[in-house]
UniProtKB/TrEMBL annotation:
Involved in protein export. Acts as a chaperone by maintaining the newly synthesized protein in an open conformation. Functions as a peptidyl-prolyl cis-trans isomerase. Pfam families: Trigger_C (PF05698), Trigger_N (PF05697). The keyword Isomerase applies. It comes from Natronogracilivirga saccharolytica. Keywords: Cell cycle, Cell division, Chaperone, Cytoplasm, Isomerase, Rotamase. This is Trigger factor. InterPro entries: PPIase_dom_sf (IPR046357), Trig_fac (IPR005215), Trigger_fac_C (IPR008880), Trigger_fac_C_sf (IPR037041), Trigger_fac_ribosome-bd_bac (IPR008881), Trigger_fac_ribosome-bd_sf (IPR036611), Trigger_fact/SurA_dom_sf (IPR027304). Residues 169-187 have a biased composition (Basic and acidic residues).
Amino acid sequence: MNISVEDKSKVDKVITITATEEDLKPRFEKAFREYRKKINMPGFRPGQVPVSIVKKRFGKEIESEEINNYVQEVFRDEIVPKYEPVGEPRFEDMSWENGQLEVKIGIGVKPDFEMTDLSSLEIDKMVHDVTDEEVDEELNSSLERAATWKESDQPVEETSKVTVDAVPLDEKGEPKADEQDTDKELDLNDDENADFRKGLKGAKAGDEVKVTLGEGDDAETFQLTVKKVYEKVIPELNEEFVKGATQGQLSSVDDYRSKLRSQIQDYYDQVSADMVKQEIMDKLIEAHSDMEVPTALVEKVQDSLLERMKQQQQGQPLPDGFDEQEYKESVREDAEREARWAFILDELGKKHEDLEITEEDIDARLASEAARYGLPTEMVKNFYAQSGDQLENLRQNIRTDKLFDRIIDEISLNELDKEAYQEKKKKERNEENDS
């Protein structure tokens, strides 16, 4: 048996495994003997079929299976420990002729690169303290969400909801009675009903109104009969409302305002932290833009991006004529960035191998997950306890967050208030688009 290596690039290799019949013969003979124990043939006692007949009847299939097993063992025992392949290996060629086996396998290996000095990175961080106006806005949104509808005898307003019978009109303005849509509810607050809102404003129950949707050749006119008009009733901000909005946890309006302020502040703090992480990733990837990434890993990421896109379809079929290969090529740059980041993150992890994930860390993350989705903590714990993969993902996410905390200690943070931060990022985007 012999293994040779051809370097296609610094990170792409083709491994050639060669073996002779002499190398493989002991495996074949053992397989023949094992196989004869499993088959029954007329005229022979179970397990006593002559090996010569086994070879004649099943020899090619058995040899093919053993060759595959042999190649997998060589790859596992010889190639993986030495080259530590990344991504999926690609079997480029395999031949078994005249007692000679030759297998070519394409693999990717980790790039050799020098990590940039983290202290040279300057990252902008948005710092924002929640204002009274923002609390008032969220409080009003809470009241709006709790609003009810009350039938009214007043004219339709822009905030009304109406029930109508809608009849499309033909080119001559005659009703298409067979296409009537009865008891159709329209919430005029919805932007999708902007044309209806404009046409119905000022009408009362019993009125007939013509409304045209769309423009030009796409325009369609309807005759609407207003059957009911509803006005929105905003609840009063009082103890009863607060109890209902907090499932009985709070009753005081001041306490509710404090809770809203805390929630909004948590949101801004989380958004700020996420933007810092994203900027760190972007700048580190940019700093290592000359890093070669193995084809095998890029293809693996392309496949995962394709799967992610399919899952976002939520069971809906892909558009007619969708070309998967074309899509994968369109996301190649993103796949290369993800692959590059994976190596950078791995290198940073080696630098901070002392990071530990404690039970307290896991409990805190589970409690945070439970609060985020409004679920009991025990329910979330049971979910993760039943899935080893999910629990491992949770541990990896905690480790990555801790790693980012270490990185942030080493870089320079430039704190900006929300307005200054947004203005700076807008200017940077404009400059990037102009270049």
